[in-house]
Structure formats: C-alpha cells, structure tokens
Amino acid sequence: MRQLRVKSTLCQVQNGITSTCQHDYNFHNENKYSYKPGWKNSIIKNYSSSITQSFQYSTNEDLNKYIYVGEHGRYSGNGYVYEFRSRSVDPQTFTSIIQLICIIILYFIWIEIRSVLKLKWKYFQQFWSYIEIGIIYCSWISIGIYIRRYNKCKRIGKLFNKTNGYVYINFQLTSYINDILILLLSFSCFFGTIKLLKLCRFNQRLCLFIQTLQYAGKELLSLSIVFISFLSLFYLLFISELDSCSSLFKTAQILFEIILMQYDAH
User: Fold this and answer.
1) Which of 2, 126, 122, 142 minimizes the C-alpha distance to 58?
2) Number of other CB atoms surrounding residue 258 within 10 Å
C-alpha cells in the first residue's frame, strides 16, 4: 500500500485560535520528509523493520512507479509504502489461445490480400476496406500486448512465489498494459460491430437510417464540435468540484441529461 501526504502548515490566527491547515494534494505541496512510526520525529518504542520502513519517504525511482492520473488530479510515483506480507501463495495457471487467434487472423489477412490483388487501388477507395484493416491491425497489436502482459504476470508470480510477498511488487506497469489491451479489444469490437452493420444493409429501415445520417452529416459534425466544446468546459471547471464531472464520460452523461432536461441538480 502506498500513501501520499500533503504538507501541514499553521493557519492564520483568528480570535486567538490556531489550527493546522492542509490543502489539496499536488506536486508542489507533497510531503517528502521521512518520519518515525506514528509520523513522529522520535520514538521511544522499538518497531519492526517493515513498520519503520513504511514511514520512510521513497521516490518513484526507488519504487519503479509512474505518475498516476486519477479522477480528481495527478499523483506522483513517490510516497510511503507499507508492504503486506504473506506466507501463502495461491497457484495461478495462465492459459493461452494465441495460436488459434493467429490462425484466424492469418485467414482474414489472406482474404484481404486476395481482395487487394483483385481490386488493386480500388480496394483503398472503399470504406469497408479500412474497417477490415482496422480489425487486423488491432488484433495483431492485441496479441503482442497480451504476450507482454502474460510475461509480466508470470514474472510477478515467480517473484512473489520466491519471496513469499516479502518484497514490494509494482503492479502499475502491468495495470497500464492491461488497460491498453482492453482499449485495443474495444476497438476490435467497435470495428466488428461496424462490419456487422454491413451484413444488415438489406434491412430497409437500417438503410433509411444510414441515408439520414449521410444527409445530416454536416449538421451532426457542427453539433459534435459544439458538444465537445461544452464537454471540455464543464470537465475543466468542475473536475475537482463535482463527482459527476470527475471524468469525461461522466461529464458527457451529465450534458446529455441537461439537453434532455433530465438532470437533477439536487
């Protein structure tokens, strides 16, 4: 567990009352001092080395951590670390289906290569060709990221098994890799959904909907620019004030509710 602390300063004296002021966390008011157990400068009682070490300030180079972007701000990779220790390790088994996925992707690549040889430059003039390329591109990168995540998890598992949890293990990079993998899989699903729409073009209502979007394309683009402007404004103004604006997704949801007059300000 890693903790970040802010500096404590004395407030201005009002009516003879003095108290301690603590401001919101940022890189400038981060507390970088090392303490004794209990956040004191000196101790009488002796503590174990793990507890004593948890009150020592560590830098991101020592912890091998990175800056973390949260919902209400950015947090450095420094801090005070307490190591939870355990003597039991649950075995984990990693199952890989990479070979099957590679075969499927190679099959799609072969189909697209045949299409390129047949259509030549006309292939790159079709909208659906870029959808196929997007699926193949995201799939190959996802495989590489998956292998990277598998190796990281395997290394962490070996390290934990070797030390029984008696060392600090950084999961931040593994978490970032997992987020990238989820993002790539999301793009693959997005392109796959668009490809599914191609198979549904025989539906007259769907064709009418697509034609409507094409007819109103310029107006929708203008509306999107205005909406993104308001989205950025609300997000930057209320990111630290309202939980409902703590992320771009939540802010967009609030704006849609305001447009539909469904937002409850109370």
Assistant:
1) 2
2) 13
Q: How confident is the model at residue 160 (pLDDT cuts 50, 70, 90)?
A: confident
pLDDT digits (tens, 9 = 90+) for 120-155: 888 888 888 888 888 888 888 888 888 888 888 888
Beta bridge partners of 2: 81
162 dihedral zone (left: phi>0; alpha: psi -120 to 50; beta)? alpha
Q: Would you say the C-alpha torsion 18, 19, 24, 25 has a positive or negative sign?
A: positive
Q: Structure pTM? A: 0.47
Kindly compute the dihedral angle of the four CA atoms of residues 116, 118, 124, 125, in this order, to the nearest 10 degrees.
-170
Residue 205: what are its φ and ψ, rounded to 5°?
Answer: -65, -40
Residue range 150-176: mean pLDDT, rounded: 76
- Residue spans per domain, the chain: 1-84, 89-199, 203-266
